[in-house]
Specification:
The protein is α+β, with helices and mostly antiparallel strands. It has helices at about 30-40, 40-50; strands at about 5-10, 25-30. It is built from 2 helices and 2 strands; from the N terminus they run E-E-H-H. The chain has a two-stranded antiparallel sheet with strand order 1-2.
């Protein structure tokens, strides 16, 4: 409820042995515009730049529409 247009977010850490990553964020937005709003939101930038990016060697992103 802190970022308008973000419907849900789930952080997944229970990978299986064949996984090539360590953590996954699965999020749902009301629209592409809401995704763009989230990407520029100060709270997202604070977490991404202060916690996530300094802690990972490789980060991949995959956006799609249903």
């Amino acid at each position: 409820g802190k970022i308008e247009g973000l419907v849900k977010m789930k952080i997944i850490t229970n990978k299986i042995d064949s996984s090539s990553g360590d953590i996954m964020m699965d999020s749902t937005f009301v629209s592409n515009d809401a995704l763009k709003f989230y990407q520029e939101h100060p709270l997202h930038k604070e977490i991404a730049n202060g916690l996530v990016r300094p802690s990972v060697n490789l980060r991949l992103s995959y956006d799609y529409e249903e």
